[in-house]
Input
Amino acid sequence: MTPPRTDTVAGMIRPVPMPPDSQVNRDLLAVMKGASSGYWFLLALSLFFMHLAGGIWVYQVYWGLGIAGYAHPVFWGVYIVTFVFWIGIAHAGTLISAILFLFRAKWRNAINRGAEAMTVFAVLTAAQFLGIHVGRMWKSYFILPYPNQRGLWVNFKSPLLWDTFAISTYATISILFLYVGLIPDIAIARDRATGWKKVLYTILSLGWVGSSNQWKAHNRSVLHLSGLATPLVLSVHSVVSWDFAMALVPGWHTTIFAPYFVAGAIFSGFAMVLTLMIPVRRIFGLEAYITDYHFENMSRFILLTSIICGYAYAAEYFISWYSGVEPEQTAFWLRAFGPYWISTWVMIIFNTILPQLLWFKKLRVNVPFLFVLSVCINIGMWFERYVIIVSALSREYNPATWGEFIPSWPEMGILAGSFGFFCTFFLIFLKLFPIVAIAEMKEIAIHEKAHGAQGAD
Amino acid sequence: MARLVGIFELPGQAAAAVVQLRGRGYTDIETYSPAPFTEVDDAVHPKPSRVRLMTLIGGLVGVVTGYAMTIWMANNWQIMVGGKPFSSIPPYTIIAFELTILFGGVLTVLGLFLFGKLPKFKIDPAYSSRFSAEDFGVVVRCREQDVAEIDALLRENDATEVTLVES
Output
């Protein structure tokens, strides 16, 4: 273009010319296009289980918790086990997004979106169990401090109340974190979408254009949200662990619970990220973005947290023996050799022994092995909570009050439904929003391009 | 008035162009980037984002609210629990901590909306979907007689294309 003469400026106005779209956009937006029959099958299956659980829940609301087998001495069964399980799963997302962000671990970019979405859906799944496990769920709002005619307030000294604040804060912050990270990517999708999706993305992208003040505010927000979410993620599972540790129940009343639960949460969360991202990578051909390097790094995290869990298991047994307190010793003896021995050994083998195979590099990059291992860890971590909650409650101080707990079909149905709920939302998310953070992948690509250009000079 | 859009492939080039334009007295400059690059954003707005102020306010309001709410409510209807004082600071610290994070986080996002000027209902015609691909745009508003000078300046800084858009 020759420099225009001033009198013809108006005549030379034209739209900015368009080259073909970038490779990163094409690859990562392709995940959202179309849907195979396999996808619809999985979605239908998830919806089926979700609705099945909904039906069982209505049945339970009508007949009461008795149908779920809740009777003395175990009033916290599969529902609370599953609640703690999903809250644990929810921890990896924030760990990957916030803590690895603060440590400038760039490898997180490929997996952080998937993990953040997983976090949000896991928290939402977990939160439902707070309503499901109470007898009169229509009075669940009693847990909130609201002005009422009786002039009563909630008991802020109760760990259950701390839990309410911790979980609701965690849900809010993880939704904000996911959304803030998504805004630039939704704008990318908006610029390329048509029809109703264009309308949806236009609304959700809030008119994002990537201008300097937007990016500046965005960078700062992500930094601060990470700084806030890092202590939050550590606090949430600590608070969940205090639901148990604050009670004078043998097997619960220990100070190790907070770090033990946090390590377990990160352990199970990373396993769930692997369980989800391995099929996603395979099905959508994202091998160029989510590489074996990412899986290997996650494996290392799993190995580290598995060792911490193993240490916590050992420390619990050691302290119960060393304490000389008989109820404590009995509780732990019965854990390993009592009626719940299968659960205990599943937990020990799946959570501490099997992951030791990750010392071998060959296995850390063996994707089918990692997938199987991650599923085993998920099962093992569910059993860990089962062992902690059920075995402790069924064997308290007075042997006359001991009882057995066997999971009932409504509980198992709702447990299956929780996976249905989680998978439904995850599957819908896959088709509506980019599962790999596009702008962050581009940041890396452009940096590489810039360095390549400098090298050429 | 006219507006020129220079298109750059690399963030360093766009940042250099912005610095030179500012040096020559052109202040009405905006950039569009596909990803966050501090060199570009700092060239246009050298000061740190004020979002940090919002986080601070949110956190402080949260911690004060947390302690004030718990202590007031516990004393508004006094019920002795486990022989503990009505104003028990250790358990209330947990509530205060969670509210610090909650308020801090919410105000941080509000700060993003406020200082990032979101939501924007009208998208600048100079914006193009190539800026959400891999190109950088430097948009300068200038008098019509300066168009030639800016066009030359943008090209000197390796702009791949320079276009005029409506102002």
Q: What stands out?
A: Chain A touches chain B through 75 residues (CB under 8 Å). The mean pLDDT of chain A is 90.
